[in-house]
Design brief:
The chain is α+β, with helices and mostly antiparallel strands. It has two domains: 39 residues, GTP cyclohydrolase I, N-terminal domain (GTP Cyclohydrolase I, Chain A, domain 1, Orthogonal Bundle), CATH 1.10.286.10; 130 residues, 2-Layer Sandwich (GTP Cyclohydrolase I, domain 2), CATH 3.30.1130.10. 41% of the residues lie in helices and 24% in strands. It contains nine helices and seven strands; from the N terminus they run ααααββββαβαβαβαα. The strands form two sheets. Strands 5-2-3-6-7 form a five-stranded mixed β-sheet. Strands 1-4 form a two-stranded antiparallel ribbon. Strand 2 and strand 3 form a beta hairpin. Helix 2 crosses helix 3.
């Protein structure tokens, strides 16, 4: 996919409309049978609107501008891994949070990306209404389009409140998703090296 087309698909540039959210939350509180004007709830619509503006900030960030000045020409072709990236997202099915860790790797092809940018990319796609499967794929596809590496690998581990506190109510069930591109998909040795790196304990570092 051409980079411009990818940017158009991944970036909407539209933020939340706070007055409309406030009105909707006010109506929702009334639908719950509450007095939306009582002291404890009077400013809840405003607070919720601010919260969604923060949690859904990823819609307003152009991912290509995010990394534009952090690509560097480096003669290095071995694996680069950033693991244990914390993320917080909202499930688009129930608007409940899912949280977890992302592990991202790539094989450079003449360029490397600034270390802080990979967690920012994860955060960008997490701060949207999401499903974990799509978020995992978006992170991998974007890095592939942005830096043209020999390969990209993304593994995401998530704990979903929609299954923890409602529905099946399985408190310890975690979802693991992966997306592999290039050498990580085609070469079992490369893929296993990545998986071994993210599975070992590095707490002593």
């Amino acid at each position: 996919m051409h980079e411009i087309e990818a940017a158009a698909e991944l970036f909407s540039g539209v933020g939340v409309v706070k007055p409309e959210i406030e009105a909707a939350i006010h109506q929702l509180l009334q639908a719950f049978g509450e007095d939306a004007c009582r002291e404890g709830l009077e400013r809840t619509p405003e607070r919720v609107a601010r919260m969604f503006d923060e949690l859904l900030a990823g819609y307003r960030v152009d991912p290509f501008k995010l990394i534009n000045e952090a690509l560097f020409d480096v003669d290095y072709e071995d694996m680069v891994i950033v693991r244990d990236i914390e993320f917080y997202s909202l499930c688009e099915h129930h608007l409940l949070p899912f949280i977890g860790r992302a592990h991202v790797a790539y094989l450079p092809n003449g360029k490397v990306i600034g270390l802080s940018k990979i967690p920012r990319v994860v955060d960008l796609f997490a701060r949207r209404l999401q499903v974990q499967e799509r978020m995992t794929r978006q992170i991998a596809d974007f890095l592939e389009a942005a830096i043209h590496p020999h390969g990209v690998a993304v593994v995401v581990e998530g704990l979903h409140l929609c299954s923890k506190i409602r529905g099946v109510k399985k408190a310890n069930a975690r979802m693991v998703t992966s997306a592999m591109c290039g050498s990580f998909k085609e070469n079992e040795i490369t893929r296993n090296e990545f998986l071994n790196h993210i599975s070992r304990d590095v707490s002593s570092i």
